[in-house]
Amino acid sequence: MATQISTAFIKQFEAEVHMAYQRMGSKLRNTVRQSNNVVGNQARFQKVGKGAASTKSRHGQVNTMEVAHSTVDVTLADFYAADYVDTLDELKTNIDERQVLATSAAAALGRKMDQLIIDVLDAGGNSANIAHGSAGLTLAKALTVYETFGEADVPDDGQRYFVVSPAGWADLLQLDQFSRAEYVGEADLPFAGGMTAKRWLGFTIFTHSGLTLASADRDCHAYHASALGLATGSDVRTEINYVPEKVSNLITSYFSAGSVEIDGDGMIQCIVRE
């Protein structure tokens, strides 16, 4: 029918949304613990405490560690990115215009996915949070983050992350210890190829423009991947339905997800003055 977008269009558009989402969607999703394909509207993450080794006497009984086990639950919510396409516009739609719609939907979904994680980071209850001190992202603040993680025995296993604002990244570029070859080596110079992420002090440091800004103070966050979880039910999907009252097709992309704090010791808020 003339009022229906073809099946080929639907499949192609959905594929383009997926591709765009994977390319430029969520920046934070792959930096946290994930539980995918959740059935229902709740997910549960297991939290395991620390154990200690002990000795035993000859022929004596082995002492168990009695490691504490607990769970953290998260409720999933549904999110949508939708727009109308006039039926007559379908006849004019070319690959470039369709790609614009797909990219816009993917960007909206990615921002929402990241916002779920940022909200959890903002609400973190770690008492070691670092105040702005009327200063930007200084060397002293970065070293305090490093020291605090070390004292809390947060694993230094390549899964420590430090997400900063573009202004925070600019602050780091002014530090010799971050940007000069005699400190980091030529291979890790942050100017190489327009680099906006690098390893430093055991953290993968990268930028994000969506971090919370209150007046002139920006909330940057250091965290371990295991410190917070992201549960997803439905991954990104797309539907196209004809709405006769509008003589248009409603293109809707959506997903179901929720994020939660698992271990507050593994996340620190570092406030910087911009």
How would you describe this protein?
With 274 residues, the chain is of the alpha+beta class. It has a single domain (7-49, 67-273), classed as phage-related protein like domain (phage-related protein like fold), CATH 3.90.1690. Helices cover 29% and strands 31% of the residues. It contains seven helices and 13 strands. It has helices spanning 7-24, 87-90, 95-122, 139-151, 166-173, 176-179, 181-184, and strands at 33-35, 42-48, 69-75, 77-86, 160-164, 197-200, 203-207, 213-214, 217-224, 228-232, 237-243, 248-261, 267-273. Strands 5, 6, 7, 8, 9 and 13 form a six-stranded mixed sheet that branches. Strands 1, 4, 10, 11 and 12 form a five-stranded mixed sheet that branches. A two-stranded antiparallel ribbon has the order 2-3. A hairpin with a 2-residue loop joins strand 8 (213-214) and strand 9 (217-224). Helix 1 packs across helix 3. The longest helix has 28 residues, at 95-122. The chain is globular. The chain starts with 6 loop residues before the first helix and ends with a strand.
What topology does this entry show?
Layout: H1 7-24, E1 33-35, E2 42-48, E3 69-75, E4 77-86, H2 87-90, H3 95-122, H4 139-151, E5 160-164, H5 166-173, H6 176-179, H7 181-184, E6 197-200, E7 203-207, E8 213-214, E9 217-224, E10 228-232, E11 237-243, E12 248-261, E13 267-273
Parallel strand pairs: 1-10, 5-7
Antiparallel strand pairs: 2-3, 4-12, 5-9, 6-7, 8-9, 9-13, 10-12, 11-12
